[in-house]
What we know:
By secondary structure, the chain is an alpha+beta fold. The protein has helices spanning 9-22, 28-50, 71-87, 105-110, 160-165, and strands spanning 94-102, 120-127, 133-137, 148-151. The radius of gyration is 16 Å and the shape is globular.
Amino acid sequence: MQSPYYFRKGDLAELSALMRKVKRADTPSEERRAIAYAIGRTETKVGAKLGIKDKPGMQFSSGGKASQQDCVDEATNTTSYLLVLQSNGLIKHHTVETPIAKGNMLKGLVRGRPVEYWPHWTAVLKEKKTGQRYAVDSWPFPMGENPGVQKIEDWYIKDRSRTAQR
Length: 166
């Protein structure tokens, strides 16, 4: 299900002010911190307008309800919010990338592995200077809470191949 939401000048001014207020320095790390606050605030505002009452994590009993989101919905929405920030010049040190998934459903099904082997999606930011990619994941948290922002290789299932190369 898709529901349009239009960011007005007031919305953008509020996000800009929030990001300026939260940033303590003009660094990529501080920008990611400010972005997390902006995403949390945007989720709250958009959710209230569209009637989204999303609970954190997987809610099996809420499948098919328009008010509940899975990780694909969260990654899609967060990516959209990041693109709004980027297209309005509010992101300087990063670019928005296509969402990614980690996990292996076959391992989860065939070998009876724990849930962390199941596929999970996230929005992605790439730091311009270093090329480091970061997961921006709001799915595990209550709606409107700041998303987790961490290096892709450390997100969800730690990348063993990257760890072995270090």
